[in-house]
């Protein structure tokens, strides 16, 4: 197992450093141009990989505040939960909305029925 680890660990380190180097923009590399870093990583797998990880890429400090915040730490999100209606209020509002839609539908249906009756009367008297 230890023998396999001696081959797998440097290989994994090489692959990680190589892909990280390729994905890094040119302006974020330090000390050497990006092409030279790729050559160093491929020619000297262990030393080049460790060198790239340690010094080759500019690391940005993580912001203490700002950026993404977990929902339970976000005061805006917590306030929005407090402003939400209770399930009973939501059901009442949905019932009112459903009633108004039903009334509108019935009114439209009555209007169409009256138009049909007028047309039938007009056709009957005109014929």
From TrEMBL:
What segment(s) does the record annotate as region Disordered?
58-99
The question of whether Membrane is a record keyword is answered with yes
Coiled-coil-forming residues are none
**Comp. bias (Basic and acidic residues):** 81-99
Q: Mind telling me what this protein is named?
A: Cardiolipin synthase N-terminal domain-containing protein
Q: Does the keyword Transmembrane helix apply?
A: yes
Q: Where is the Cardiolipin synthase N-terminal domain?
A: 12-56
Q: How does it sit in the membrane?
A: Multi-pass membrane protein
Write down the InterPro entries for this protein, in alphabetical order.
CLS_N
* Main subcellular location of this protein, as a coarse class: membrane
Q: Which residues cross the membrane?
A: 35-55
Output the superkingdom of the source species: Bacteria
Task: Quote the subcellular location field of this record.
Answer: Cell membrane
Assigned keywords, A-Z? Cell membrane, Membrane, Transmembrane, Transmembrane helix
Which Pfam families does its entry note? Answer: PLDc_N (PF13396)
